[in-house]
UniProtKB/TrEMBL annotation:
<dbReference type="GO" id="GO:0005096">
    <property type="term" value="F:GTPase activator activity"/>
</dbReference>
<feature type="domain" description="Rab-GAP TBC">
    <location>
        <begin position="165"/>
        <end position="396"/>
    </location>
</feature>
<feature type="region of interest" description="Disordered">
    <location>
        <begin position="264"/>
        <end position="283"/>
    </location>
</feature>
<dbReference type="Pfam" id="PF00566">
    <property type="entry name" value="RabGAP-TBC"/>
</dbReference>
<feature type="compositionally biased region" description="Polar residues">
    <location>
        <begin position="1"/>
        <end position="14"/>
    </location>
</feature>
<protein>
    <recommendedName>
        <fullName>Rab-GAP TBC domain-containing protein</fullName>
    </recommendedName>
</protein>
<dbReference type="InterPro" id="IPR035969">
    <property type="entry name" value="Rab-GAP_TBC_sf"/>
</dbReference>
<dbReference type="InterPro" id="IPR000195">
    <property type="entry name" value="Rab-GAP-TBC_dom"/>
</dbReference>
<dbReference type="GO" id="GO:0044732">
    <property type="term" value="C:mitotic spindle pole body"/>
</dbReference>
<feature type="compositionally biased region" description="Low complexity">
    <location>
        <begin position="92"/>
        <end position="101"/>
    </location>
</feature>
<feature type="compositionally biased region" description="Polar residues">
    <location>
        <begin position="74"/>
        <end position="86"/>
    </location>
</feature>
<dbReference type="GO" id="GO:0031030">
    <property type="term" value="P:negative regulation of septation initiation signaling"/>
</dbReference>
<feature type="region of interest" description="Disordered">
    <location>
        <begin position="1"/>
        <end position="121"/>
    </location>
</feature>
<feature type="compositionally biased region" description="Polar residues">
    <location>
        <begin position="35"/>
        <end position="65"/>
    </location>
</feature>
Length: 460
């Protein structure tokens, strides 16, 4: 992303969506939804349609350069499946049928089957969106960069198809494509899990039980055991990356030549340089930690949206090592830079509100630390967090700083009328992603290019 180009992201007027509050679905409906996902994937593979994993072609070349210019809209495509043979169907179980009489298996006659239609967890039919179609079809004629840009425009102009719980059949593949995360072999994740407890295991266990503890949607779908496994595997991965490389053995003839060269050479040639030119490996400001408090909340939406732990692991590990490595360093310097940027951006966007908060001693370090570290995942409801992350992964996680400023701007009247704004800022109001995204887009135009460049680089 070029920090010198003037943005036109703010010139795009976003549609406003009325989003009903998330209502927990029953476990039975969740089981039916998971079964529907499995059957849909099987059906598409059987009739020759590309599975969502074909989107790895989009993700193969990495992120590319995220741009600030956004305009356009996504087309709508309806994909249907058809077959002339009706297979044997399985009767419902006694627990589902509500009857004491078991339902017998039946064999249907050969007749034309109605085209399958996509439904959400409540049973209502929904039309397949352009996002879904683009992810299934992949880039046409090798137009990778153009397809990625089209994907970003669709994310900005329309929501990802999801039910009231925020569950979507293709959101996780959208994130993989937007972040450019390559496919990960399942065995690689299993090998990390089978290594047992990492050096950070105790710290992980002290945090996982309280991860989104008051969110019933998260608690019903994600177990603490899966959260522990994923964080422990990431800790092993980061631990291995910090180990010095093992010296490779050379052939005996080469060793003899090196020994003769060392005998005939002056000692100064083989001496190591002294002074501050060599940094110690255990410097806490430069050495990334294998786990810091808050990584459990940052990891939670990945596990909630993913269809497997392997997908969540690949995304989360990529995110903390490539997108926001400064957030997990020992000193968490990236988070502190982000907090200072919240104050600076608020001064530009809303000088009156910033001056009032500063007069009360309320700086971002006192109230915005969780929001910066977790990309607002600490602010419920979870379906709105997923929608906000669609936008952040499309145009850069650095925009989370402006999303926090947007939430402060929406609280403006209440803050200015309060004698103790610290009470209001202890917890932000429920997240409304569409309104926050609209304000964020409008704020981009007001941010100078040099400050925007600092936003882009603050988490590196």
């Amino acid at each position: 992303m070029s920090a010198n180009s003037k943005p036109s992201l703010a010139n795009t007027k976003l549609p406003t969506f009325a989003v009903p509050p998330a209502s927990p679905q029953s476990p039975r409906k969740l089981r039916k939804f998971q079964s529907h996902q499995s059957l849909t994937s099987t059906a598409f593979s059987s009739f020759g349609q590309p599975l969502p994993t074909t989107t790895t072609a989009i993700a193969s070349n990495g992120n590319g350069n995220r741009q600030r210019d956004v305009a356009g809209n996504g087309a709508t495509t309806d994909i249907q499946s058809d077959t002339n043979v009706r297979p044997r169907t399985r009767g419902r179980s006694n627990s589902e049928s509500g009857s004491s009489n078991p339902t017998q298996l039946t064999t249907g006659t050969v007749r034309t089957k109605r085209p399958a239609r996509k439904t959400d967890s409540s049973g209502y039919f929904i039309k397949r969106s352009g996002l879904d179609a683009l992810l299934r079809d992949g880039p046409a004629d090798g137009r990778l960069l153009e397809t990625l840009q089209e994907l970003r425009l669709m994310v900005l102009s329309s929501r990802v198809d999801a039910d009231s719980d925020g569950m979507s059949t293709y959101r996780i593949y959208l994130w993989l494509a937007l972040l450019g995360v390559p496919p990960l072999p399942t065995d690689e994740y299993l090998n990390l899990v089978h290594r047992g407890r990492s050096p950070a295991y105790t710290k992980i266990r002290n945090d996982t039980f309280r991860t989104l503890a008051t969110d019933p949607l998260f608690k019903r779908r994600v177990t603490e055991a899966s959260l522990i496994r994923l964080l422990n595997a990431v800790a092993w991965k980061l631990h291995d990356a910090q180990q010095p490389p093992k010296p490779s053995s050379r052939p005996s003839s080469r060793r003899k030549e090196l020994l003769e060269l060392a005998i005939d050479s002056p000692p100064t040639i083989t001496e190591e340089p002294e002074g501050d030119s060599v940094q110690p490996l255990d410097n806490p400001t430069t050495k990334p930690a294998i786990y810091v408090q808050g990584m459990n909340v940052l990891c939670a939406p990945f596990l909630y949206a993913a269809r497997s732990e392997v997908e969540a692991f690949a995304l989360f590990h990529y995110f903390v090592t490539k997108e926001c490595p400064g957030y997990v360093r020992g000193a968490m310097d990236g988070v502190h830079k982000g907090l200072r940027l919240v104050d600076r951006c608020l001064e530009i966007v809303d000088p009156k509100l910033a001056a009032y908060l500063f007069s009360k001693g309320m700086y971002a370090e006192l109230y915005a630390f969780p929001s910066v570290l977790t990309l607002c995942a600490c602010t419920p409801p979870l379906p709105e967090v997923l929608h906000l992350w669609d936008f952040l992964f499309a145009y850069g996680p650095h925009l989370n700083v402006l999303c926090i400023v947007a939430q402060l701007n929406r609280m403006r009247d209440a803050i200015l009328q309060s004698e103790s704004p610290n009470k209001l800022l202890r917890s932000f109001p429920p997240l409304e992603a569409d309104k926050v995204i609209s304000l964020t887009v409008s704020f981009v135009r007001k941010i100078p290019d040099d400050l925007y460049g600092e936003l882009v680089d603050h988490a590196k």
